[in-house]
Amino acid sequence: MTLVEVVGYSAAIASFVAFSARTMIPLRIAAICSNLLFISYGLLSGFWPPALLHALLLPLNIHRLLAMRRLIGRVAAASHADVFEAEWLRPYMKRMSFTKGQAIFAKCRRVMKEWNDAFSRSFKLNPGMEGA
């Protein structure tokens, strides 16, 4: 097996690892490794399309990795702050409009109903708790 083949197979394995990652940071790290290996493979073998594609994807993956690390740092800082400041979250938000009576959390409606029923039953079973 030649060096070019080893680099090519390594690039394919790194790409598979990136696609199978469950969380974003390992995905980006594997994608960056895959980009570097595919660039090397393209240059060593003379296949320019993979080298060009991964040369374009490399800065994107680096940018996304750094953005995710910044976000994690901001979340950690916000979780330890005395006063919650939400302004840094604004780029991650999307304005939404709702009409009166529209369900916002439709997926958990059944769970909330069951919880409310159980909660109200506990007050009926404990008559002394009615004024609480």
Notes on the structure:
The chain is mainly α. The chain has a domain at 3-92. 68% of the residues lie in helices and 0% in strands. The protein contains four helices and no strands. The protein has helices at residues 3-20, 24-45, 48-80, 109-125. It is elongated.
Topology of this protein?
Elements: H1 3-20, H2 24-45, H3 48-80, H4 109-125
Structural class: mainly alpha
The sequence of SSEs as H and E is HHHH
**Quick one: biggest sheet?**
none
The pLDDT mean sits at 86
User: Judging from the principal axes of the Cα atoms, what is the shape?
Assistant: elongated
Name the helicity range. 55-70%
Strand content: under 5%
The radius of gyration over CA amounts to 26 Å
Tally of contiguous helical segments: 4
| First and last CA, distance | 77 Å
Unreliable stretches covering 5 or more consecutive residues:
none
What is the strand tally?
Answer: 0
